[in-house]
From TrEMBL:
Protein name: Ig-like domain-containing protein
Transmembrane region(s): none
Alphabetized InterPro entries for the sequence: CD80_C2-set, Ig-like_dom, Ig-like_dom_sf, Ig-like_fold, Ig_I-set, Ig_sub, Ig_sub2
Annotated Gene3D superfamilies: Immunoglobulins
Length: 815
């Protein structure tokens, strides 16, 4: 049988075969296929394959750019206008494949050549210049070597960068106001990637701008927040957009700033004037220099922040930019300014201080009438207005008979005020004080006139009292007067006269009528205070009434102010109670002296001696009718007081006519206080402690005592120095029985020494010492009193008309 030839189409093997035996592998596949075919054919037709014909697809494809860089998905990015080359390398394939390029599905002309060294095909295409439309263009390289097999292909997309297409500064060429904050916008579009925007002011880069990009990335917006001022006017503000990935110039937009601002003004004095030598009567003119955009439409002038208007009669001439002041005076002095108005607002110039020099004149609102008592020192204050304030004062006293210059030693000066210390001694010393001052401008034309009148009782219903008594120390006259004149709201014309009472720390101001006085008190009482030693003290403002100042001599601290107020409520209305202190020049100045001062309106007289809280005290006040200590009747000699002698005799148990001294010697019991009026008998009188039993107790007779007397419990008489030596250093006392002691010491107080108050007679051994008129009378009385003694004691009488008179009996204690 003749051999049969078969032709098998084994198809295209897509998988890559080993290079060592591609034909063997392909043959095996074909043999397998032939066996399958021969299995379906007749057995007699099975034979062997005598000839082979086979095909292989391309093994791989690579797209590269002109730099030889492999591109798998994207080619680029390229810039607009670039010319590009792409090549497609095809490896393997039998027979040799055909290579073609496609652009968005459309074939492109390409140059294909065989590369023998690498045994592959290369197909190249050239595109350009590229435009924005070439962005994302798809390029496909396709290879095929069999019509019935699927072709092999590789594709890339073109990527491109674009420079910004446009830029716009929104709101440009509009005027801006100085001092206001603006948010300026600059927009740019067409850049890929998004553009960067920067701001510049006259070539200087501005920071702190914010950028935003649209969702598609095509538009960029930059916001600049800025505050401009008038110095920025005319500067060039711009914004620039650029893409750093594209080599191209940045786009720029901007405009020259038009800054509007409120007027900027200042006052200029006339060039022919010297600001440091302007006197009263000089003509002064000013110019207002204004810079403004837009231009001002009005200019105003102000004096001390008050608008000036044209007033030729008062010498004020106002034009648009000028001010003329004719014949200036001291009231013209002050701060001048001009104000310019435009569409942006108003601008005021700095203050220009006009200093007008003038001779001294008397200052207003100072007291002109002073009520001064004879031998009372008054401090008269004179205040002047002067510019310059360096002044010299001269005081002159005038009365109906003569005119006398006050000595410089009585004059003191502080700034533009002067105080003269003046003390009228006789009726001729009442008159008028003239105060005049001089500075470098000239002498005061009209002096300040102060009337010094006798200090009579001021009319109560029209008098306002400023009470400084609550202060720990009396304020200076200048301070007290200044306080009253400035704080009470009274004008100089409303004050008829003024009187300062230093002893009581009162300042009385008599006004024109009672209604004004009442209004002044109502407006000011309880609303003022003064600071002293770091503490504030209220200053009562009251109406002057018929109140009197009552002095209670030498009360101990055990007697409280409440006890005093309750006692004096029987005699009238109590206004105030304050303690007394030692005054200068005593070393103990400022220390309480034991006296109390009660201000009260009395409805009936107060006796000279009263008992408060079991303690007897001497009472004195102005206009008082003095009374007897024993009987509370009109004052009379102690030996003439019948009621007193009877009282002493009854207490002593002695009948008949007996002298004071005899009653004091023979009685060992304590004597009660003298009787007081029935309405005063509410306090239990104090009694002196009874001494030891003695044959003859020491007797102390004090005439008109004025200082404290200290008596030891042993009966020893003590003589105390006069008030002028009260604050001197005490000497050591002598405690020998029956011996005169010159001064007490602190040690005596701890050993039973009792203290009797000043101005009160001292009781020793329970006996009361009575005032005597002379030493001879005292000696006579003592002789009678001691006649009953077996051995009369020696008698010593000390008579000192300037101090207390003390009589000491030297006796021995009987066991």
């Amino acid at each position: 049988m003749a051999p049969v030839s078969f032709r098998f189409d084994c198809g295209i093997v897509r998988q890559r075969m080993p290079s060592s035996s591609p034909r063997v592998q392909f043959a095996r596949i074909c043999r397998k296929a032939s066996k399958t075919l021969s299995a379906n054919a007749n057995a007699t037709e099975v034979g062997r394959v005598e000839r082979w014909k086979w095909k292989l697809p391309p093994e791989r494809m690579v797209i590269r750019d002109q730099l030889g860089m492999e591109r798998t998905t994207v080619a680029g990015p390229y810039s607009e206008g670039d010319n590009i080359k792409l090549r497609c390398d095809v490896y393997g394939g039998r027979p040799t494949p055909a290579v073609a390029w496609y652009r968005d599905g459309l074939p492109l002309a390409a140059e294909t050549k065989y590369m023998p060294l690498g045994k592959h095909l290369r197909s190249e295409i050239t595109l350009g210049p590229l435009t924005r439309q070439d962005l994302h263009t798809k390029l496909v390289c396709r290879a095929s070597n069999h019509a019935r097999a699927n072709p092999v292909e590789q594709s890339v997309q073109i990527d491109m960068n674009f420079a910004p297409l446009n830029i716009r500064l929104i709101g440009s060429h509009q005027p801006l106001s100085a001092g206001r904050r603006y948010d300026l916008l600059c927009q740019s579009a067409g850049s890929r990637p998004a553009a960067s925007i920067t701001w510049f002011l006259d070539g200087v880069r501005l920071d702190k701008s914010k950028e935003t990009t649209s969702a598609d990335g095509n538009q960029t917006t930059s916001t600049l927040s800025i505050v401009l001022n008038r110095t920025d006017a005319g500067k060039y503000l711009s914004c620039k957009a650029y893409n750093s990935y594209v080599q191209s110039d940045a786009l720029e937009d901007g405009w020259q700033l038009d800054i509007q601002y409120v007027p900027d003004a200042y006052v200029k004095l006339g060039s022919s004037l010297d600001p440091n030598s302007i006197r009263e009567g000089t003509d002064v003119y000013f110019d207002c220099i204004v810079q403004a955009h837009p231009a001002v439409y009005k200019v105003e002038w102000k004096h001390n922040n008050k608008t000036l208007t044209r007033n030729i009669s008062q010498g004020v001439i106002v034009s648009k930019h000028s001010l003329v002041l004719q014949g200036v005076s001291r009231t013209t002095a002050g701060n001048f300014s001009c104000v310019g108005f435009n569409a942006e607002g108003e601008g005021s110039s700095p203050m220009f201080e006009l200093n007008v020099m003038y001779a001294p004149t008397c200052a207003p609102n100072q007291p002109r009438v002073y009520g001064v008592a004879k031998q009372e020192n008054a401090e008269i204050r004179c205040v002047v207005d002067a510019n310059p304030p360096d002044v010299e004062f001269k005081w002159t006293f005038n009365n109906s008979a003569e005119s006398i210059d006050v000595q410089a030693s009585h004059i003191s000066r502080l700034g533009t005020s002067s105080i003269v210390s003046y003390t009228p001694m006789t009726e001729l010393d009442y008159g008028t004080l003239l105060c005049s001052a001089t500075n470098k401008i000239g002498k005061q034309r009209q002096p300040c006139v102060f009337h010094i009148i006798a200090a009579g009782a001021m009319e109560a219903k029209c008098t306002v009292r400023v009470d400084f008594s609550k202060l720990p120390k009396r304020p200076p006259v200048m301070e007290a007067t200044t306080f009253a004149m400035t704080q009470l709201g009274l004008k100089e014309s409303e004050i008829a006269s003024l009187r300062l009472k230093p002893a009581n720390s009162f300042l009385d101001l008599r006004v024109k009528d009672q209604a004004l006085a009442l209004r002044t008190v109502e407006r000011n009482d309880g609303k003022h205070s003064l600071e002293c030693d770091g503490n504030k003290f209220p200053i009562p403002i009251t109406m002057v009434d018929n109140s009197v100042m009552i002095k209670l001599h030498d009360l101990s601290v055990d007697t409280t102010d409440r006890m005093i107020a309750e006692f004096f409520s029987r005699y009238g209305e109590v206004r105030s109670i304050r303690p007394g202190v030692w005054a200068k020049p005593y070393p103990c100045a400022g220390i309480p002296d034991g006296n109390r001062y009660v201000t009260a309106v009395l409805s009936k007289p107060v006796p000279s001696f009263v008992t408060i809280g079991g303690e007897e005290t001497l009472v004195t006040y102005r206009g008082q009718q003095q009374t007897c200590r024993t009987c509370s009747l009109a004052v009379h000699h102690g030996m003439s007081c019948t009621q007193g002698r009877k009282l002493i005799a009854q207490k002593a148990g002695v009948s008949g006519r007996l002298s004071y001294a005899a009653a004091l010697v023979t009685s060992n019991a304590s004597v009660q206080q003298p009787p007081v009026p029935k309405e005063d008998r509410t306090e239990t009188p104090r009694t002196a402690p009874a001494p030891d039993t003695v044959t003859g107790a020491p007797i102390v007779l004090v005439s008109a005592p004025t200082v404290p007397a200290i008596v030891p419990s042993t009966g020893t008489a003590v003589s105390v120095p006069a008030p002028s030596a009260m604050c001197a250093a005490p000497t050591a006392p002598t405690t020998t029985q029956g011996t005169m002691v010159t001064a007490p010491s602190a040690a005596n107080t701890a050993t039973g020494i009792s203290v009797a108050t000043p101005s009160v007679p001292v009781a020793t051994s329970g006996k009361e010492a009575m005032p005597m008129s002379s030493s001879s009378e005292i000696e006579a009385e003592l002789t009678k009193a001691t006649s009953a003694f077996k051995t009369p004691p020696p008698l010593q009488v000390s008579a000192n008309p300037k101090a207390q008179r003390t009589v000491t009996l030297r006796v021995r204690r009987q066991r």
